[in-house]
Amino acid sequence: MLSDGNDTAQAEAVHSFVWEWHLGVSPERLWPCVSDTDRVNRLAGLPSVTYRTVPLEGGGSRVYAEIRLLGLIPLRYREHPFEWVENHRLSVRREFTAGPLHSYTSRVELFPETHGTHLVQTLSLWVRWPLIAPVLKTVLGRAQFSFGRVYEGFVSEMLHPSDNTSPGRWRSSVEAKTARMLRQISPPPDRDLLEKLTRHIATSEGRRLRHMRPFALAREFGHPKDEVLAVCLSAVRAGALNLNWNLLCPHCRDAKAQYASLGEVTPAAYCEGCNIDYEVEFDRSLEATFSPSPGLRRIREEIYCVGGPGNTPHVVEQFTLEPGGTHRADHNLPPGAYRIRCEKSKTYVSIRMTGEGTEIGGEGGAKEDKAPITEDRITKVRIAREGFVPFFIQEPAGTLRVNYTSEAAEETFIVLERAEWADDAATALDVAFFPEFRRIFGPDAIRPGENIAIQNVALMFTDLKGSTRMYEDIGDAVAYGVVRGHFNILSGEIRARDGHIVKTIGDAVMASFKSSEKAIEAAFAIQQKIGERNSEGADNPVIIKLGIHTGHAIAVNLNGGTDFFGTTVNIAARTQGESRGGDIVITDSVRREPAVEGFLSQAIFREDIFDGELKGIEESLRLHRLWPGED
Asked: Measured in whole angstroms, how far is the alpha carbon of residue 42 from the centre of its chain?
């Protein structure tokens, strides 16, 4: 449907057009495609865009852009921040400095239907040149057809996915050359994985190849993350791929710089979009991505949109709040950690949605609180001069009803986002301790003398109890075999939970994990496997001492490799020293993490709580000794 809404004299310069489609998939399935505005605009035939960011005094920035109609006529405009509610709607406003338009807004809304989605796209154009008005219907009629073709193409892809790995498919010269290069990898990887990676490199559109994320490819290919990362690293050595380190801003999480080596990274960085200086963090700021080598494919660096939701999928909702204004929002949030922030404040509201409530219908639904809406159940968030009030919110998962009030003298851009970073990001914490990375890129470590912070890392220390006596009793050769066998058990369980062995010290192991929950899972699995080994009649039973602590740390270059230092490391090591063997000792802060509590609520164990005096730590720490398998 196409309607022209210029009924009054005042609105003669404003022309509104409404387009509607009924699409056969749910809003939740359609949203990732529709919200990827860079892809949508490119497929719809819109021209590419060049962007310029201007930082503002007091924080934040403005974005200016330029497009060229027919490749010749420049149109310059200011792009206001996109506003959206995940799975429901998105909109943007652009103000032109010259040309036929003053400004226009585009709004896309997704309404659920019994058999899919009612998509409504509304364009409102403020015309500077009245003579152009008669042409608008013709031009936008063509645009409506183009966008409709794009949206219907998305649905067709979902309902009838093509098999890009079909053996009868035509093999291009790029595909054949890629296959030859990847066959150099030794030892040979899984054949199915190699074929899928070859096809992806040879046949995918350029935008999917500029920053290939190995963990995202693992999900797409249906292979383990470690396996795909190992193949990508080996493909660099074979000359098929390039490895790049993207430097991500902790606020917008956009890539602000790219490095070919970890050794080029410095501890401090600046984001002109957010207009902030920030500390580079090993587990959050540095992401490893891959791209085809120029000898295989040259990727054109064309951008069609940078501000859409698809560029920041961690953002649930964002909107602009007028000076002194108020805004009411109902956020449907699954269990997890979230935060509310704005570009002009260094503080933020931390949100914890717990796993209580009742299910919401539909795909990927959160849990909805069915209690009646009363004034005392509405969370009030105030944007004050000193920052946000309150600093912390905890509610059952479901509908978080928030009433925002601004005391700022200017408009404020509010963002509600998931606090956890995407599982698809292969950070430096994932890659730097990966065996294949160390083997292939040994010298590619942090610049000597530089330290890079780690926002949050879970560290596990283990030790083999009585190993000195074992060497004396059974001899060096036999004891060494026992030690290697126990290392294999530890390594397998650690890597199965996305952990990495940082180093071995004699019979001891230091391992890192992205979360305490994964570390606890690995610890329980290790003690279980060691117990099974001993109970099956092993000639030389072994007992493992194990401790875990989570916190901030510093990544440093040591002897050409990467290592951790800081108080967190010291506490984790001392915690292991409190272990008696067969148990797991964790700090109180780890025990109280919601994800750890969730795991332990399903586990069988006995728990002892005690205060430990840890060497080198001034204050005593509350520790928890867990005995897996005991009631």
From this structure: 24
- Residues 92, 97, 99, 100: what is their CA dihedral angle, to the nearest 10 degrees? 50
d(CA 433, CA 148): 47
Query: What residue type is 6 in one-letter code?
Result: N
Backbone angles phi, psi at 241, to 5 degrees: -125, 155
CA distance 145 to 534: 69
How big is the CA angle at 401 (ends 398 and 405), to the nearest 5 degrees?
150
22: which 2 tokens? 């009924």
Q: What is each CA distance from 554 to 279, 280, 310, 385, in whole angstroms?
A: 12, 11, 32, 33
User: What is the C-alpha separation between 544 and 5, in angstroms, rounded?
Assistant: 74
584 contacts 524 by C-beta, under 8 angstroms:
yes
| C-beta of residue 413 within 8 angstroms of C-beta of residue 436 | no
Q: Can you read off the two tokens belonging to residue 391?
A: 């600093």
The total number of residues written for the chain in this structure:
631
CB 630 within 8 A of CB 524: no
Alpha helices in 369-408 (DSSP H): none
HSE value, Cβ hemisphere, 13 Å, CA-based, for 49: 24
How far CA 245 is from CA of 217, 262, 434, 480, in Å, comes to 17, 7, 15, 38
Contacts of 27 (CB under 8 A, 6+ apart): 87, 88, 110, 111, 112, 117
The answer to whether the Cα torsion of 67, 69, 75, 80 is positive or negative is negative
CB 34 within 8 A of CB 40: yes
Q: Which residues of the chain have pLDDT under 70?
A: 1-12, 70-71, 162-171, 356-377, 421-423, 443, 445, 448-449, 538, 560, 616, 618
Q: Cα dist. 79→139, 158, 377, 411 in Å? A: 22, 31, 36, 15
pLDDT tens-digit readout, 24-62: 999 999 999 999 999 999 999 999 999 998 988 777 788
State pLDDT tens for residues 546-557. Answer: 999 999 888 887
Q: Which residues contact 130 (CB under 8 A, 6 or more apart)?
A: 12, 13
**How far, in Å, are 54, 81, 111, 417 from residue 275 at the CA level?**
9, 15, 36, 19
* pLDDT tens-place string over residues 518-528: 999 999 999 99
Q: Which stretches of 261-397 are assigned E, i.e. beta strand?
A: 268-271, 276-279, 286-292, 315-321, 326-333, 336-342, 349-354, 358-359, 367-368, 379-384, 387-389, 392-396
Residue where the block lists tokens 């050595």? 237
CA dist., res. 29 & res. 10, Å (int)? 40
The answer to whether 366 and 355 have CB atoms below 8 angstroms apart is: no
Helices (H) and strands (E) in the chain, counts: 15, 32
Backbone angles phi and psi of 2, in degrees to 5:
-130, 120
- Tell me how far apart the alpha carbons of residues 25 and 32 are, in angstroms, rounded to a whole number: 12
